[in-house]
Amino acid sequence: MNTKPNIYSIITLGIVLFIAYTYFYKNENNTFELREQILQSQIDSLANTVVEYKHERDSLDNNIHNLNDSLDLLQSSLVNKSNQIYKLKKKYAKKIKHINTYTVTDINKYLSDRYSK
Q: How far is CA 49 from CA 6, 42, 46, 52, 57, in A?
């Protein structure tokens, strides 16, 4: 049994019934001009919605660019702070190394000279 002719028959019958329904039962108020006006208003509404979405997208794109710029500034600041910390660490490492070379006598002499004035 072949089902393809049955499917084609059902589809053809459906199309014929749809055409008959739209031809015989169409509303008198639903003229071509009225349908055209409705479609045009829907098109205008969609166009307005598209414009609104475009503005929102542009605003979000600007926010993304601003956030990326802020992130770049923060990363630059982080690098600068890291470099400063490294320099301070290196500087104090030299001072600590230098302090460790002092003897007790050197420290006593330094303190007595400092506070004797």
A: 45, 10, 5, 5, 12
